[in-house]
Amino acid sequence: MPLIRRRLAATLLGFGLLLAAALVTGPLIGSTHISLARVFDGAIPFADNADAQIFFIARLPRVLAAALVGASLAAAGVVFQALLRNPLATPDTLGVSSGAALGAMLAITFHFNFAFAGIASIPLASFVGSIGALGIVYALASARRRGLSTIVLLLAGVTMTAFFQALILFTQYLADFADTFRTVRWLMGTLDVGSYAPILAALPIVLVAFAMLATLPRSLDLISLGTDAAAARGVNVLAAERLALASASLATGAAVSLAGPVGFIGLVVPHLVRLIVGSDHRLVLPASALFGAAFLIACDALARTIWSSGELPVGIVTALIGGPFFLWLLVRK
Amino acid sequence: MLKADGVSFAYRAGATLVVNDVSLVIAPGELVGILGPNGSGKTTLLKMLAGTLTPSAGTIQFDRRPLSSWRRRDLARRIALVPQETHAPFDFTVLDIVLMGRFPHLGTFALEGPDDLAIAKQALASTGAWAFEDRPFATLSGGEKQRVVIASALAQSPELLLLDEPTTSLDLGHQLDVQLLLAALNHDRGVTMVLSTHDLNLAAALCRHLILLRAGRVVAQGPTEDVLTPETVRALYGVDADVRRHPVAGHLTVTPLARMP
Which member of B52, B90, B103 has the closest CB to residue A224? Predict the structure, then answer.
């Protein structure tokens, strides 16, 4: 086996090229055909260049949102799986995205109007919901003893998810017909962000989360083998666990507040990536982020084109692809 | 090298003391066995000696400094722990697992270089695990796993190796393999070792000193020849046993005869 340096370089190059290809191809796909040459034709003023307008105004924001959301959810999936020592963990296992969904439901149903620094109240409420959910689960898991109990974390997360789902249903019951329709649509997950502003609002959070994640992969390798063994190898386990929880939750919260709960990315992408690069988190984490971004761009392109009479919510596409695909992964072993 | 003074531990304040007022000294080059029935506090004591659990009372010093004042990473360069069982939820290869032992020697963003790889390969060679370095860890047998985890601990380049029941769940052949491996590491590399075990004959064959624990308290400690007697076996396990020197192996052997009421 070659040294980790060479494997890391090959991984970054391969998955980086894949994402670059998706970023360029993604905006070209859609109901109206546009040409890349015409988009970047400097001779035509932007106001008269319909291709450039479609590329930059209608499609590129969606593609960038897909990249940001896909990267965040895939990376968060990797972290939760390592932290909980459970390959079936997802960004929602700890209730973070259910908390985000509840926040959005409340904002839609009760017509919250507290836009802050240019961020609309629905994504804001959604982000607050995700952080609130993490806070509750974390408090429960660290209440009984020194350090974090993985099993309590897992049980509390699953329970909180079910509880949040019940509250979501309750909120929908209270909502009127039009608001119920909006909440249901929001829960399907969509990348129709409309402009660059929501992306720019989520970007700093995701960047902070990724900067925190960058220090963690080796600690995650060791923690996945057991916390005592990791501590004996020199990992500051509690600090690493806290950092991992915080960063994965921030990334999930930002992603869900941007696009709604887009499922299966955090489960399918890490598993697919492990088939290619092995289990070393120094490879799995960056590869999953890059591949998650490319994968969601592709799913969104499919969502925009597969239905002749309009668009499918991307969350439906990822679920329809991800569900059977994951079952295939399970059976093939 | 390692010195514990009146160390106690309870998992919660006010709960039963799992380890109760234990004092011990581990000298460099020693090979010490910790014996005791199930639930006597062996694993907890080892974790405290490794610094992964903090005593509720008492102090532990390593190299004349309190264990609590050591940075985790600095300590891991000198003390390694082999847990009773290692379960890998992901498909790490054997070499992946052994290279993880280099963690305390590398900075946060540093990647293993040729030197680290050489150390890992040497650790694999000295535990006889080199033949399966590319195999997935999860597919190994219990004995193979144990050798890999010991190799991973050796890759830490420790002076002190703590092992929690290293031969439990191994068959006779693998038990002997691990026993000979530990004896060789202690003798050839001068690695100081403390191991807990239920296997009295292994302890008698391997360890020069024994610490006998019962309900968290030290019942006896000292040279194996002095400490391993029918009386102490009875006190520890409630078993009437015959303890005698084996004519061929040359060490003490323990044969249980009857359960004491």
Answer: B90
Helix H segments across chain B? 42-50, 72-76, 94-99, 114-126, 142-154, 172-189, 200-206, 224-227, 230-237
Write the class of the CATH domain B1-78+161-227: alpha beta
**Bridge partners (DSSP) listed for residue B253:** B244
Structure-token pair, residue B18: 């799992």
> Are residues B100 and A4, on separate chains, in Cβ contact within 8 Å?
no
Q: Residues B67-79, buried b or exposed e (16+ Cβ, 10 A)?
A: beebebbebbbbb
Which residues of A fall within a CB distance of 8 Å from B134? 1
Nearest to B111 among A8, A228, A236 (CB): A8
Q: Does the structure's ipTM exceed the value 0.85?
A: yes
Distances (CA, A) of B23 to A66, B7, B26, B34, B119: 60, 6, 10, 13, 35
Please tell me if residue B104 touches chain A, with a CB cutoff of 8 Å.
yes
* Contact between A280 and B96 using a beta-carbon 8 Å cutoff: yes
Residues B50 and B153 sit within 8 Å (Cβ to Cβ): no
> What 8-state DSSP symbol labels residue A28?
G
Q: How far apart are CA B61 and CA B69, in angstroms?
A: 9
Q: Does A18 contact chain B (CB < 8 Å)?
A: no
Helix, coil or strand: residue A9: helix
Exposure b/e, B172-194, CB count within 10 A at least 16 = b: eebbebbbebbeebbeeeebbbb
Which residues from A are below 8 Å from B111, CB to CB?
3-5, 8, 282
Domain parsing of chain A, residue ranges: 11-38+46-332
Is A222's Cβ below 8 Å from some Cβ in B? yes
Q: Is A87 on the interface with B (CB under 8 A)?
A: yes
Distance between CA atoms of A175 and A196, rounded to whole angstroms? Answer: 30
Nearest residue to A225 via CA among B43, B76, B86? B86
- Per residue in A158-204, pLDDT tens? 999 999 999 999 999 998 889 889 888 889 888 888 889 899 989 99
| DSSP string across A118-161 | TB-HHHHHHHHHHHHHHHHHHHHHTTSSSS--HHHHHHHHHHHH
Cβ-contact B98, B155 below 8 angstroms: yes
Please name the CATH architecture into which domain A11-38+46-332 falls. Answer: Orthogonal Bundle (1.10)
Residue in the structure block whose two tokens are 């666990």: A241
Domain ranges of chain B: 1-78+161-227, 85-157
Q: What is the pLDDT of residues B183-233, one digit of tens each?
A: 999 999 899 999 999 999 999 999 999 999 999 999 999 999 999 999 999
CB contact under 8 A, B90 and A87: yes
